[in-house]
Amino acid sequence: MYQCPPQDEQAYWLIFSQDKLVQLGDRPGLIHGSWLELQFVSAYQDEVLLVGQLGQHNCYLIDLGLEQPAHERAELVSLREAMMREGEQAFGIMARAWQLALFYRTHRFCGQCGSAMHKVDWELATHCNRCQHRCYPRISPCIIVAIRDGNKILLARGSRHKEGMYSTLAGFVESGESLEQAVHREVMEEVGVRVSNLRYFGSQPWPFPHSLMVGFLADYDSGDIQVDGEEIQDAQWFNFDALPLIPPPFSIAGRLIQASADNCK
Q1: pLDDT, tens only, 99-144
Q2: How far is 30 from 101, CA to CA, in rounded Å?
Q3: Which DSSP state fits 177?
Q4: Residue closest to 38 by CA, chosen among 21, 66, 3, 14
Q5: In the list 37, 137, 196, 214, which could disulfide-bond 103, CB 3.0-4.6 Å?
Q6: Which fold has domain 11-105?
């Protein structure tokens, strides 16, 4: 849990400022070094959180909240950009670190009685000493689905996608809904088609902001593509040998697309 590592331990440091990851201009990528080299965050010594390991090195989280890093070479990089650049090996650690940082930021006060919350020493939780309400990191389930029709796959360009990128359909699960019901509803709402032969594929944590992506493969059943032009800007059927710009292969969207292509061979 919370601990300041040995002064000379070589470790990875995930330092967040606002909703960005802090990197040092002369050392691109995740910050790697010892606590002795991080004097600009020395005031946070009692708030260092061990979040896992990368290779043989521990990974520690430090959250500056809304504060700017007091380092002349500090650069703030979007988490999405950093995750795409660092690749699969660091993906899980970065996702976990940001989800925990956001949890502690947004649970400083009790949602039941309004009193100050206190961090629990032996588990990832906050606790209210007044009414005994305890909170744990929030996980929001989302479905993500690849829809195949023969040698074609249905891909969409969302309003948040970078220019030219198409991906599989995804959406949050609503209260009282099963994962399967969420797939059918989201597909109909986003592109106006029906699917069949739904089967589970896999899952991946996704820290935007605290999601768990639950992946499915599906077959096209009926209907014509219709998009709202707001959340979904465009959706098309693409041949597997003529795909547009798609998510990287270590993302669950990329893996769903690859699995769909493999299934049509």
Answers
A1: 999 999 999 999 999 999 999 988 999 999 999 999 999 999 999 9
A2: 16
A3: -
A4: 14
A5: 137
A6: Nucleoside Triphosphate Pyrophosphohydrolase (3.90.79)
